[in-house]
Design a protein that fits this description.
The longest helix has 18 residues. The mean pLDDT is 95. Helix 4 packs antiparallel against helix 5. The protein is α/β, with parallel strands linked by helices. 44% of the residues are buried. It has 3 domains: 135 residues, N-utilizing Substance Protein B Homolog, Chain A; 52 residues, 2-Layer Sandwich (Alpha-Beta Plaits); 183 residues, Vaccinia Virus protein VP39 (Rossmann fold), CATH 3.40.50.
């Protein structure tokens, strides 16, 4: 248990270092690592965790230059990475950052590394110009992505890889989806303006905020007037576009953003599936806030005998598990937890899901295949292989969204089932 004040920089550095060390040991931020931090300190800790993980390739390069030998103590190394990130982003408070990092080091490994932390950080400040020049000569460190990831993005997008990498290293936009059943977008835009929140319309019902704000500041968020959802993700309901009264399946539904959007656009007979009961509860909570209902079940969509009643669906949404390479700025740990072999594993799982779900689509119906990936093996190549196996399938609208300042990276392909 830390003895440091919750509102101190030392406490934030310490907790961020512990979370980063857990990520480097193989844990995911999705496992609730930030949820263990006291709510008073959580925003500051989250900023340090996400920022230091996004720039891990950069910080790791600096440490390799500054340390005479590898540092075995994972939490101390993580503390140095977090402190270097803070020094780079808050150069006006260098002395404070170094001092507070040394205080944080006193809480780790019985305080044996306080002198090392102090020396490394001061050397970083003294050698910064030399280190930055060396960094510029290292393509992988400059790009802040693993070498295999960088190579795949460069091969797939020779004209766009730099902008993709830059987007992955920055903070994501905060975007909203207005519940048009309850409020027009112009009305909600005016309500935001009255609260001093600047936003820009995008797409059918979307708004991109100039600066992120806590959801508690959003007018009538709890009453269901608006949801937080990336504009790229909002395309799913628009592209699938099931008619009113359609029988619809959302096969990988959690946390329920796309499910809710489908119901906001039309009254539907909708079944939402997800693997875990805990994830299904999130779908239910989202729909309850918005005032919608659906049949929600915890089940593996591939195991048809556990959930399908034999009645075909008019429309199926298959937002399949993937590497999340298009939303890495929202999941910065993914860059360092993923391995190149994971692409083939995800592609195999995606193929199984496609084969299973195609069986439940009625002749004349449609299936929208979705990933939040930019890797072709999970996207266009996956669909081409599927079409070669399924003569009834026709490729409809297909689009690869690359991450930008306005939206994340997504792939969409609408598949139509002919008799």
């Amino acid at each position: 248990m830390s003895r440091l004040p919750l509102d101190s920089l030392a406490f934030s550095l310490l907790e961020a270092a512990r979370i980063d060390a857990a990520v480097f040991a193989g844990q995911s931020l999705a496992e609730g690592l930030l949820g263990r931090v006291d709510s008073v300190a959580r925003p500051a800790v989250q900023d340090l965790v996400y920022g230091s993980l996004r720039s891990y390739g950069r910080g790791d390069f600096f440490l390799n230059q500054l340390l005479s030998k590898p540092l075995a103590e994972d939490e101390i190394r993580a503390l140095l990475l977090v402190a270097i990130y803070r020094l780079e982003t808050r150069p006006d408070s260098e002395h404070t950052v170094v001092d507070q990092a040394v205080v944080a080091a006193g809480e780790l490994a019985e305080g044996r590394f306080r002198a090392l932390v102090n020396g490394v950080l001061r050397n970083f400040l003294r050698q910064r110009e030399t280190l930055l020049a060396a960094l510029a000569e290292d393509a992988v460190a400059s790009a802040q992505h693993p070498d295999w990831w960088l190579a795949r993005v460069q091969a797939a997008y020779p004209q766009d890889w730099q902008s993709i990498v830059a987007a992955g290293n920055g903070p994501p936009p905060m975007a909203l989806r207005v519940n048009l059943r309850r409020c027009s977008r112009d009305e909600y835009l005016a309500r935001l303006a009255a609260e001093g929140i600047v936003a820009t319309p995008v797409g059918e019902a979307g708004l991109v905020l100039a600066k992120p704000v806590p959801v508690e500041r959003l007018p009538d968020f709890s009453a269901g007037l608006v949801s937080v959802q990336d504009p790229g993700a909002q395309m799913a309901a628009i592209l699938l576009d099931p008619a009113a009264g359609s029988r619809v399946l959302d096969a990988c539904a959690a946390p329920g953003g796309k499910t809710a959007h489908l119901l906001e656009r039309n009254n539907l007979d909708l079944l939402a599936l997800d693997l875990k009961p805990s994830r299904c509860r999130r779908v239910a909570e989202n729909l309850e806030r918005l005032g919608f209902k659906a049949d929600i079940r915890a089940s593996d969509c591939v195991k048809l005998n556990t959930w399908w009643d034999g009645q075909p669906f008019d429309a199926v949404l298959a937002d399949v598990p993937c590497t999340a390479s298009g939303v890495v700025r929202r999941n910065p740990d993914a860059k360092w937890l993923r391995r190149e072999t994971d692409i083939a594993s995800f592609a195999a799982a995606q193929s199984r899901i496609l084969e299973a779900l195609w069986q439940v689509v009625r002749p004349g119906g449609k299936l929208l295949y979705v990933t939040c990936s930019v890797f072709p093996a999970e996207n266009g190549e996956q669909i081409s292989d599927f079409l070669a196996r399924q003569p009834q399938a026709r490729r409809g609208h297909e689009e690869q969204l690359l991450p930008t300042a306005e939206h994340d990276g997504f792939y969409y392909c609408l598949l139509e089932k002919h008799a």
